[in-house]
Write a structure and sequence with these properties.
Strand order of the largest sheet: 2-1-3-4-5
CATH topology of the largest domain: Hypothetical protein af1432
Strand content: 5-15%
Number of helices: 14
Largest sheet: 5 strands, parallel
Shape: elongated
Order of helices and strands: EHEHEHEHEHHHHHHHHHH
């Protein structure tokens, strides 16, 4: 280990160098100029620094101040030595980051013992930091495993809903990707963007309880059928809610609210504006956009420009106008995602769709 020694007096340097030789595995690197020592410290990492305070500028206190500003030396132990016995100087040195303080004349035995103790404390600190880093890594690894299992659960449940519906698995993939893009355009934190990406595929899980005669009907639904279809939001929420998992809690919220409308005319609860959770508002927009631009049993896919006009028309009524703005700001990315996650059987057509819920 290298021990940095800074003192403008040659005799003192020789004494400190002899002390360092008594420390196993240590070698002294000596400087008579604190400026030169600081330059050396920019490229090297000593195990400890021994610094005399009474030197031509920069003095020992200034050395400590500059030394501590270097990130790699934030925890390197410093032994400050001074001819002054003033307690104010001692306090100032410790405040700036000195680990210990000795007054001249230096007792060789005491100084060597102080150096040994400071180094030992530094070793203990490093061991604790290494152990803490190891434990933190273990926690991260376990957390990643838990998140991976949660994500697998979400995707498997989404696959279950997919088998009950004529919509392809690409619908849930597109809808999730669109939702993340909208969240990004709205300036939401990255963690929220990733959360909606993972939770959105579960939005229609409640359709597992909708009869095939309604779910797969190629034409408009009758009023009583529409009422049954609307229950997929409530059923989806019942399936997902009650978990301690933030991911499943978010998925439950989305399942319940992704058919609410900004003006309060949606279902199942008629929530409006800010009363609709933001993830639900985002998924409502991405779900409708994908429905408009995809082939469904009851309609062909709309051309992109027609779908965009419909989205713009719904700002403030069906959709949060701020989220429509976010959607439009991410339009290039959304178009790219639409192509990347396209259904092979999807074809563009301009015919009017038959309106139906779901």
């Amino acid at each position: 280990m290298q021990i940095l020694v800074v003192d403008d007096g040659q005799p003192a340097l020789l004494i400190y160098k002899a002390m360092v030789r008594n420390l196993p595995g240590c070698v002294a690197v000596c400087f008579r100029s604190s400026s030169e020592a600081l330059k050396w410290c920019e490229l090297n990492e000593p195990a400890m620094a021994i610094v005399d305070n009474e030197m031509p500028p920069p003095d020992g206190l200034e050395f400590v101040r500059r030394f501590r500003r270097m990130e790699k030396h934030a925890n390197t132990p410093i032994l400050m030595i001074s001819a002054e016995k003033d307690s104010e100087l001692r306090h100032k040195a410790l405040e700036l980051g000195a680990s210990d303080f000795l007054s001249k004349p230096v007792d060789v035995i005491e100084c060597t013992a102080r150096m040994r103790n400071v180094l030992q404390l530094a070793r203990y600190r490093k061991q604790l930091e290494d152990q803490a880093g190891f434990l933190a890594g273990q926690v991260r690894e376990r957390t990643q495993e838990i998140v991976a299992r949660e994500r697998e659960t979400i995707l498997r449940l989404a696959k279950l809903a997919e088998y009950r519906d004529t919509e392809t698995g690409m619908h849930v993939a597109r809808m999730a990707q669109y939702s993340r893009a909208i969240a990004r355009g709205a300036g939401m934190p990255t963690a929220d963007q990733e959360m909606i990406l993972l939770a959105a595929p579960m939005h229609d899980i409640g359709k597992v309880a909708v009869p095939d005669s309604i779910l797969l009907k190629p034409g408009p639904l009758e009023p009583h059928e529409h009422a049954i279809m609307e229950q997929h939001t409530v059923i989806g929420h019942k399936i997902l809610h009650g978990s301690s998992s933030e991911l499943l809690q978010t998925a439950a919220e989305i399942a319940l609210t992704h058919h609410e409308k900004f003006n309060g005319s949606g279902y199942p609860n008629g929530f409006k504006a800010e009363g609709i959770p933001v993830f639900g508002r985002i998924c409502a927009l991405s779900d409708v956009f994908d429905a408009l631009t995809s082939v469904r049993p009851y309609k062909p896919a709309w051309p992109l420009d027609r779908a965009l006009r419909e989205i713009s028309r719904g700002a403030g009524t069906d959709f949060d106008p701020r989220l429509v703005e976010a959607f439009m700001s991410e339009l290039n990315e959304i178009v790219r995602l639409r192509q990347e996650y396209s259904d092979e059987e999807a074809i563009e057509a301009g015919a009017s769709p038959q309106e139906r819920a779901g």
